[in-house]
Design a protein that fits this description.
Blueprint lengths: L2 E5 L5 H18 L14 H8 L4 E8 L2 E13 L8 E11 L8 H15 L5 E3 L6 H9 L16
Parallel strand pairs: 4-5
Antiparallel strand pairs: 1-2, 2-3, 3-4
Helix pairs in contact: 1-2
């Protein structure tokens, strides 16, 4: 398999939406009270159109030949110095998705490597992401890519 990584363009919106459906489905199955099941009429092409034109957004597409088999969406964030914190630039990975048939074959690692290469080029020392607690496969993958826990987010349901 010869997968290549390239920067996405507005012409990739339909492929990004299709690839997003796998991740959306997994989230909807685990947390149906938050996430909706993907459907043909709800493919979120609009969700990708706007960020693709944002200069702080980064989209990479993994292709096997002419077929898009994965993508990564990240965003450059610049936090100014405050009275409590130092200025800090980072890249936040919002989405990564690889078609199930291409998982565990290095495609996700290539996408992560592409964003790390960009971080080095931009002199940004931190790449971060979050993942849901149910997604233990993703947590293990991210750990293999060198990510470590730096923050915990908690919630509680309040009876109404």
């Amino acid at each position: 398999m010869n997968v290549t990584i390239r920067t996405a363009t507005v012409n990739d919106v339909a492929s990004l939406a299709r690839l997003n459906a796998d991740v959306q489905r997994r989230h909807a199955e685990a947390m149906p009270f938050i996430f909706k099941q993907p459907s043909a009429e709800l493919l979120p092409t609009v969700m990708f159109s706007e960020p693709l034109s944002d200069p702080n957004s980064i989209f990479f597409v993994a292709e096997n030949g002419e077929d898009a088999v994965g993508y990564l969406w990240a965003e450059i964030s610049q936090r100014p110095e405050t009275q409590l914190t130092y200025a800090r630039d980072s890249i936040m990975i919002h989405h990564i998705s690889v078609q199930p048939a291409y998982q565990r074959q290095g495609v996700g690692a290539q996408l992560i490597a592409a964003v790390k290469d960009l971080a080095r080029q931009e002199q940004i020392a931190t790449v971060k992401l979050d993942t849901w607690s149910f997604n233990t496969d993703a947590q293990a993958f991210f750990a293999r890519q060198g990510f470590t826990i730096y923050n915990y987010r908690l919630w509680t349901e309040v009876a109404l």
